[in-house]
Amino acid sequence: MQKKRFAVIGHPIGHTMSPFIHSRLFRLAGTEAQYGAADVPPEDLSAELEHRLRDLDGFNITIPLKRAVIPLLDALDGKAAQFGSVNTVKNENGRLTGYTTDGDGFRMALAAAGVRLEGRRTVVLGAGGAARAVAFEAARAGGTVTVAAREHSLPAARELCADLTKKIPGTRADFCLIRNIGGEADLLVNATPVGMYPNVEGCPVGADLLQRVRFVFDAVYNPGKTALLRLADENGIPGLGGMSMLVWQAAAAQGIWTGARFGAQAVARLCGEASFEMKKKFGVPRTVQP
User: Fold this and answer.
1) CATH class, range 4-103+244-282
2) In CATH, which of 3.40.50.150, 3.40.50.720, 3.40.30.10, 3.10.310.40 is domain 106-242?
3) Given the DSSP bridges, would you call strands 88-92 and 144-149 parallel, antiparallel or unpaired?
4) Per-residue pLDDT tens digits for 218-242
5) Which residue is catalytic, options 3, 4, 66, 281?
6) What is the pLDDT of residue 283?
7) Is 66 a residue of the active site?
């Protein structure tokens, strides 16, 4: 039997952990497959899709192509259409269908940590692609969502809230500046790049806000222990880093491609292996890429 072929595309792509994670998942599932990475600038996406990517059994998509790829696909899963973002593509007899597993990765990572989204207030820092996946997943679970952004991102935060209330009837969503976040929150999610290499000491909020939060999730996975998570620790607030979301979204993608399913213990072990490999491979914290 011929090996199945998969890859991740993005620009830049040099520090992605996806080949390591997916190769381990294929091995766990007993699937004969190979997984590579391809640097695809946005202006080359259409040509690459027609001349190379259609030869693959499937592929993942990372920044900055998650929305740009949508009009180039043959079909779109309902959730991907709702989110307005694609990170996984399945090739079935030459027909490319786009999916999103970013929200699944977020939800499954929290579930493995014993944290529920249902009926909770989630405050999302940021209004970009990662924030969009997190906000939609929280809204789909019936939670209240606050999108908090810096001044230059406030129009995007307003647009995201409007999209949430339009696409998920009954959603309670509001937006504000990060410095104006009020009240208590069950979950605070950092979906900004603050805290990534090389600015590893950057922290998007102060201790005064964390004291009104029950749980902190940082979508940044490199470094594994961000300044935000360290500050949460100092204030006695439990937290979780982005590596778990990265591995769970990869596991969900393999479910789409091959039907494979993975248990929480196997994923937890892989999170540890991936974190170790990241340090061994890059030596110092690098820029986050899914």
Assistant:
1) alpha beta
2) 3.40.50.720
3) unpaired
4) 999 888 899 999 999 999 999 999 9
5) 66
6) 64
7) yes
